[in-house]
Design a protein that fits this description.
By secondary structure, the protein is α+β, with helices and mostly antiparallel strands. It has three helices and seven strands; from the N terminus they run E-E-E-H-E-E-E-H-E-H.
Length: 179
């Protein structure tokens, strides 16, 4: 899951914690779909984990499609509220669907994310919060959330499985049989 995290330090217009938007991959392109997370106010590991959890949970819809565009607002008291839209393959008509993800669900996923990749989330927050960003620049960091973090909370990615995933991804393999 490719993610662009942006920080808007002023949150004067609303109590919204974050906005989460999806951008599908362009047609006939090798670029993957991307989620754009905009945090408002002071970034914390917990607020970023909640926003990432909202992005992940929005993708668990039963009719998830690769060309779906999602727009969600995230509030501590309401959870994630927004909509999803896509083109019907048969008719070409725009189809929309309201999305509501309860705060308890987002909170549980955020807790799992912090357990599995809390150090990475803290590094991202530290990068967004650094005081030496150039004046007038937009604070934004792009990264990829790896598959081990997307496992359901009950699956609990183990260290050995995570290391094996990295070895396969990087092309490193080894045999422990000790010939």
């Amino acid at each position: 899951m490719d993610v662009l995290v942006m920080l808007e330090e002023t949150s004067e217009y609303s109590t919204v914690l974050a906005h989460v938007n999806s951008v599908p991959s362009p047609l006939n392109s090798e670029r993957r779909a991307r989620d754009v997370v905009t945090l408002y106010g002071a970034a914390t590991p917990e607020s970023l984990a909640l926003a990432l959890a909202a992005a992940m949970e929005s993708r668990r819809e039963p009719i998830e499609r690769s060309d779906t565009i999602r727009h969600l607002g995230l509030w501590p008291e309401r959870g994630a509220v927004g909509d999803a839209a896509w083109r019907d393959e048969r008719t070409g008509e725009l189809v929309t669907r309201d999305l509501t993800i309860p705060y308890d669900v987002i909170r549980a996923t955020a807790t799992h994310l912090l357990e599995e990749c809390g150090a990475s989330i803290r590094r991202l927050v530290a990068g967004l919060s650094m005081p030496d960003w150039p004046e007038g620049s937009r604070r934004a960091i792009s990264f990829t959330l790896t598959p081990f973090a997307i496992l359901p909370a009950g699956a609990g990615a183990r260290v050995d499985a995570l290391l094996e995933l990295y070895r396969q991804t990087d092309g490193f393999t080894f045999d422990n049989d000790g010939d």
